[in-house]
Amino acid sequence: MTNRKWTKKARWREIREQLDRQPVVQISEMADYFDVSVETVRRDIDSMATEGLVIRTYGGAANFRIASEPTLEERTEVLIDERKKISLAALPRVNNGDVLMMDASATCVHFGELLARERTDLTVITNSFSVAQALASNCTVTVLMLPGVFNAHENANYGGLTVEYLQRYQADHCFSSCGALTPRGPTEVNAEVSCLKRAMIQLSKQTTLLIDHSKLGSGKLETVCPLSQISEIVCDANPTEEVQLALQRASVSLCLI
Fold first, then answer.
1. What pLDDT, on the 0 to 100 scale, is given for residue 218?
2. Superkingdom, according to UniProt (predicted)?
3. Domain count for the chain
4. Residue pair 165/195 in contact by the 8 Å Cβ criterion
C-alpha cells in the first residue's frame, strides 16, 4: 500500500506500467496497492479492457504480449532451420507403431513432416489440421482428429469437447511446445491452449517439449504444468541458469542441438 492519493488516471497508468514489468496483475493486490476497494480496481480494469489497453483475465489483467502470438501459419514460416534440426533430434524418440499425441505448434508441424518420411504405422492423436496434413503423405499413419470449436488462428480445434473426447485415448509419447519456458514450467497464451496441452501430457506415458530459442524469454499468461510432468526438452539453445536449475530439480532431461 502506498500513502499517495491515486486518481483514476494515475491508477490506469500504474496498472499499465506494472504490466510492462510482469505478465499479469491481480485485482486484489492492486486494490491493496492503491488502498481502494476491489470493486474500484475491477471497474478500472473492465474499462481498460473495453478500451483495448489490457486483456481481462480471471481475477486481474494481462498485457497483450503474453496473451497473444502470431498465427500458426506465420510461426511455421520462421526459424525453419532451427525447427527442422529440433525435429531431427527428436526423431529417435519415436518407434514404428507408436501412438503419439501432438498439439498445434509450429515445430510439431515440421516434426510431422519428418515422421511422415521416416516412420511407419504410427497413430497420431491431434487437434491440429496442419499436423494432420503434414502426416497425410504417409498412408501407413493413422490420424485421429479431435473434434471441437475451430480456431482459425491456430488452424486447430479447441474447447471442452476437444478435451472431453481426448480422455478416451492414451499415448506412448506426447510431443508439444509452449509459448515460453519458465522455472515453473511451460506457459501458454490462453486457457484453451493450456487446457488441451495439459490433458495430452497427463494422458501420455512421457512428454517431450520441442522448443526453439525464441521460447526462452518471458513467460506467457498461463502455466501448462509443472516441469516434473515433462520427460525431456529438445532445444537449440541453453535456457537461463534459473530454468536449468529448475530442470535439474525436476529431473527433466535437456537435449541441446
1. 66
2. Bacteria
3. 2
4. no
